[in-house]
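debug: dumping io for the single-chain case to check the tokenizer round-trip. Nothing else runs in this session.
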Amino acid sequence: MFFKKKEYTNSSIEYIIVGLGNPGRQYENTRHNAGFIAIDYIAEKLGVKVNGIKFKSAVGEAVISGKRCLLMKPSTYMNLSGQAVTEAMNFYKIPPQHVVILSDDISLDVGVIRIRRKGSDGGQKGLQNIIYLSGSDEFPRVKIGIGKKPHPDYDLKDWVLSRFTEKDQKLIAERLPDVMGAVELIIANDIDKAMNLYN
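debug: decoded output
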């Protein structure tokens, strides 16, 4: 007699919430990890752990706005985030419109957030890889400002991998409730309200 592996129905997960960042202690609290910081905040508020390993990511499940959601922190490193995201999308048969991306943005001042229904990657390498591998740019996203380079000659990689100052940490922390509120509204299919409230 053959036993089938447990099969998950397509409705088991309805939304995927992805925080972008780099795994490892050396990257903790760096500017590029604003997405990870946001996922950790949301998970803490919902009382869930993001410590399962699946889809090349740390994952956890939560109910947000009445929908079953997968919280993801890809462990592929930022520039290959699309590998993890598309693997999860394909497994659960989730359309791009149901994948919410939380990422850093150097064009926004620290703590400023911008919600977008879809669009280009804006130079963000993780988002760029997700769009490239999925073939779609129709991902709703919450962009978290990490500030511009302090000087035009400053190396971009060095800047995004630098740690937040105490002042910047406070600015980010103050906006995390708004990031979570935006995610809740996006999942409730009210992204316009999210943009009006938090942009």
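debug: round-trip ok. Residues 1-10 have pLDDT under 50 and may be disordered.
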